[in-house]
Batch of 2 targets.
Target 1
Amino acid sequence: MTNPLSTILRSKTKTVEISRSLPTVMIGERINPTGRKKVQEALAAGKYDIVRKDAIEQVRAGAQVLDINAGVPGLDERALLTAIMQEVMAVVDVPLCIDTANPEALEAALKLYEGKPLINSVNGERRSLQTVLPLAKAYHAAVIGLCMDDNGIPRTAEGRLSAAAKIIQQATQMGIPIEDIVIDPLAMALSADSQSARIALQTIELVVKEFGVNITVGASNISYGMPDRPYLNSAFIAMAIHAGLTCPITNPLVVENTTAILAGDLARGKDEDGMRWIRAYRQRQRAAAGAAAD
Ligand code: THG
């Protein structure tokens, strides 16, 4: 096993370290208008109160990084992404994960950001490598590399390892430190392919063994189209932590997600004396008692 690498992210005043020898870092997924009609309508009307609430609640629930996605059909992504980031930075001070496939929006976001963000994402396609990696380098940002290339998403873990290797090779050749690359194995819906979670898990194992880099994953993707989504997501999260996941993109307001992360960390020896597990339990007890008293 390669030594665990440390990815450092920074906001104006906070530093977050992601490493396999530290507890798992939760990246909050909720600032994402995709599939949220009400949020799309509010943003189109220039209303940002939902965004601010989503930011505050996720950080309160333990998110150490927030993913920011501003993809609303028909709206200018560059203007919307920077506006959302400013709203978020006004209410919380955690590092941001800039979730866009639009290079102009990405550059505007990087220009604006005070700190060291995580770019979400680059992939192994020629055009993506050529546009995103120079931006990551110029702005000293960390970057998520998706395990796909010009031929699409490989069907095997070995194929995805090759896509990761290509991204890591090109990035490091340009002078981006390997510890600033976070690999996403790509978790796809189990409803479309019952092997998708297994392939993602195996990809994590191979990439960790070969490179020791940090690993993210969109943890709720696998349950898309299935009933009882939280149970599937939480089982997958715990298994992925065992495989080497270090910073899932997930909904911190769902207790099955936060407990799966804490349980995975405790089971992997990343929670000394189980203190984080016990503290989270007590917090939930207090919250329940408070709610009952209201
Ligand atoms: N990898 C990387 N980035 C990603 C993904 C990934 N960014 C986007 C996505 N996948 C992760 N983010 C989300 C955000 C929301 C949901 C799923 C993934 C989601 N939303 C609810 C739904 O569709 O049912 C609706 C909103 C809600 O009520 O919470 O599931 O894979 N690098």
Target 2
Amino acid sequence: MSTADLFTPEEPDGAGDPPVVERAAWLRAVLHHHAWRYYTLDEPEIPDAEYDRLFQELQALEAEHPELQTVDSPTQRVGGRILEGLSPVTHVVPMLSIQTETDTTAAGAAAFDSRVRRELGLADGDPPLEYAAELKFDGLAINLRYERGVLVLAATRGDGETGEDVTQNIRTIGQIPLVLQGPAPEVVEVRGEVYMRRDDFERLNERQREKGDKTYVNPRNTAAGAVRNLDPAVTAQRPLSFFAYGVGDIRGWDLPATHSALLDALLSFGLPVCDDRCVAHGAPGLVAFHDQVSARRDALPFDIDGVVYKVNSLALQRALGFKTREPRWAVAHKYPAQEQVTTVLAIDVQVGRTGKLTPVAKLAPVFVGGVTVTNATLHNEDEARRKDVRVGDTVFIRRAGDVIPEVVAVLADRRPEGTTVFTMPAHCPVCGSAAVREDGEVDSRCTGGLFCGAQRKQAILHFAQRRALDIEGLGEKLVDQLVDSGIVRTLPDLYRMGLSALASLDRMADKSAQNILFALEHSKRTTLPRFLFGLGIRHVGEATGKDLASHFGTLDGIMNASIDQLLQVSDVGPVVAKSIRTFFDQPHNREVVEQLRACGVTWEEGEPAAQVPKPLAGRTVVLTGTLPTLSRDQAKDLLEASGAKVSGSVSKKTHYVVAGSEAGSKLDKARELGVPVLDEAGLMALLAGGSGPSDMPNREVTDGGS
Ligand code: IVH
């Protein structure tokens, strides 16, 4: 695809110039066009590589012929000098501020409409006024001066009379055209807001975190800081965006009749104008816009702090004029702030359902993002340390959307004397068990497991699940009720509760209570691997449970094994070994195990691994399709008990494929590779051939399976 197919700029001025001059002009025009497609419209027409190729061609031309370099060349977006300071710029037309409506409810819109009507001397019966309604972007106001279509000066607002020259930095913003499209007036000053999108801000902070650098507080301050940075190379690294919302000095251009048409004209010059705007009629139109934007505020890709209403007719704007430094024809209608400053009263540590410890700042109540906030998460120890949040600190907190409130930064100069650095406690604040943070993890966790109140529900559900103790009917709702009512505190309590306690629960019929008791009774006869898995020891899943059981043979063997002994088990590494040791080092975990045994939970214990025959050791088997009597889990258990590895995919290394009905591609693959295929009977024969059914330690699983 060639660039010229997609966009051919008009014949450059000065046709008949030497070919290099024409080529440079053509490249500039093409690059401007594609920068606009890419940055402003977000609809690129050519691949990035093609753009880069054209850009490099222009750079090379300019290097060879420095006289071809122009101020509006796309190559001039980067490469400005580091400045000693920003120079003052006097605005030809002052940059006014805007009156703020303090009533943040929709009624504020009606108050503005009444005021304007009164000042224009309109009677109640006169038709409604037309307004241009826009978003109030939360960034930094900028004036862009274009002379004969070329960007010559960019300045901050400053005090409204005098701002600062930030031209070099503004040139780095891809969305801001260096040359206006179409026939350009002699002078156009465009006013608008430089801002940073939220996703760009998040990505920037992510990069900072990766580098271990300090993160930025919010998109607004970051954008403002970047625009005023003395090194344009730094600014070029910041993802800035721009929206035009008005004009300043104008020469050689008959302005359109309305503000909305003026914005359309700026759009046709190639400037970014936010399309979240409308022409509203009277107070009801303003109120509707205010409500509509308020509902979408959190879904916008950038921060706004309100909406702005402007009398649409430029003639009426002139008639209304100014009151000191504010126009009478515009008002900013704010929304509740999403950031506030407050103080940290305490730092608590909360324990989640999986044992994760989260530091939470307790705050002096503050109204932010539309609600009163008293807590803000500090995420984890590293985050708390990096932000260095301490009790007594004054902090910036932010609550946007439904996101949980967050401490974004500490106001360091407001820190009182005698504060101390936050450290994660060594013990769980709920149950007192050791809290550990494993190597390479960001979270500390309570090791209390079964015993920890915060983890109780989770622990019970884990214990009761089908692949663990398989207590039928003990689901999330019932566990919630049992724990909340205090009937069940620890796992053994499950086996101690009676019919009357169960039946006393809401919506629990006698029959269902009876069924639960049956299921509990039935679950008591289990296997060691299921029991081990059911304990919920971190990093001990089903497979590890099985490995441990077959290696040690008895629970006591596992509970008393040293780290070194645990490391002898296949697939058990240092992290798993440590986790098992830590679990059984907690006296209350041992207590729970003893009580469960006392309640009648039993399994057959075997001999340590060396003496248990493993006829299928070293064999890999793949299960596919539905077997006539065995469930997938049962077949897997039987195979693993015989030492086979059960894999999910067929390869040359597969020894057998066991296929039932509706076996699909795995069966085809087996045939293709010549792997022996067995049916259920063949599987049983294979298992029996090795050691005979009476030797199978898990035989009861087949009989008891549901
Ligand atoms: S018009 C004469 N429109 O709000 C009116 N301002 O004091 C001039 N702002 O920092 C402002 N969005 O940068 C206008 N859609 C918008 C705006 C907007 C944000 C900012 C502006 C200035 C403050 C007004």
